[in-house]
Each structure stands twice: as structure tokens, then as C-alpha cells.
Write the C-alpha cells for this entry.
Amino acid sequence: MKTAIYPGSFDPITNGHLDLIERASRIFDHLIITILHNHRKNPLFSLEERITMIEKAVSHLNNVEVQSYSGLLVDCAKENNCHIIVRGLRAVTDFEYEIQMSQTNRLLAPDLDTVFVTTDMKYGYLSSSTVREVAYFHGDLTPFVPAFVAEELEKKYSAAAPPAAKQKFGTAVLQADK
Ligand code: PNS
């Protein structure tokens, strides 16, 4: 049985992640989605919130499991007796970061391979951070995340970016353009 791990921050899960999960679940017999800590990021959603959202989003896929892990990805893979990591490649800008991670993981665990799956073109520039930014300014999240994730984002930012602040910024930009 071919098991693969799909690691990430998933803060929150997006339609791009889901596209990749569906593709990977067709390639592998068993897919483990693992939420790991990215030291470069300070998450908006707690681990429990992220697990709940992912579980709901993948409930239609019966070979997908959701986990979290504290530590190195290579150790997580070892504990799951798994030798394949799946990562998504969107645009060419992902390449540098992804190759660095994959080569680091290979030095740490030579029997662990990273398989890259390309996302659908329409998600080529979609990321959790841009989704959080749109949510912060109360933009329409329909193209980016499942409806229940949009609701969770709206709850998080319900008090943020009052209209007066947005207007002030808009005026300043217009004046600078003159
Ligand atoms: O969704 P992200 O934030 O791009 O995922 C990055 C993640 C969580 C997969 C990466 O930061 C990670 O593997 N973190 C665990 C620590 C680790 O193993 N680091 C060594 C690989 S560079």
C-alpha cells in the first residue's frame, strides 16, 4: 500500500489545497494530511480549528486521514512508516522554497522522496496568506475557500478594518495620484 504525507500549515485550508488533496488521493492508496509548525509563520487558527476545518473539507474522501505533528517532518514520516512527501507546486516562485525543503529532508532522511503535484491553473496564485488578507478587508471569499471556512474567517476578522479606516487609506492614495 502506497502511503504519502501531505504536510503544511493549512492556515486555513484553501480550494487550492483541496484540489491537490483530491489529486493526491487518486495517486496514492492512503494520504495523511499533517499540520506541522512552520517557524516562519504565526498561525491565525489554532491547531484544533485547522484540524476540524480540514476534516470537514475532506469528509468525502475515504483514503485521507488528518493529523498534526510537533517536530521535524522526517520524524513524522518515519513514525507513520511513510517514504513519500507530497507538496504542491503553483507558480515558478514556489520552486526555490520547495527544492530547499525537499533537499533538506533528503539529507535528513535519504529514503524519503518528495513528489510534486501541480495545482489547477485557477489556483496558481492562491495561498492561505492572500485568503487571510482578503478576509481581513471583508472581501468575497467564494473563489478561494469552502463556504464553512469563509464563515470561520469572517468570525476571526469581524471586528477588523472598520470602513472609516478603509476610506481614509483610499483618499490618501487618490491624492498621491494627482
Ligand atoms: O504550508 P507551509 O507553511 O508551506 O508548510 C511548510 C511545512 C510546515 C511543511 C514546513 O515548514 C515543515 O516541514 N515544518 C516542520 C519542520 C521541518 O521538518 N523542517 C525541515 C524542513 S525545511
Remarks:
- The beta strands are 3-8, 30-35, 64-68, 84-89, 113-118.
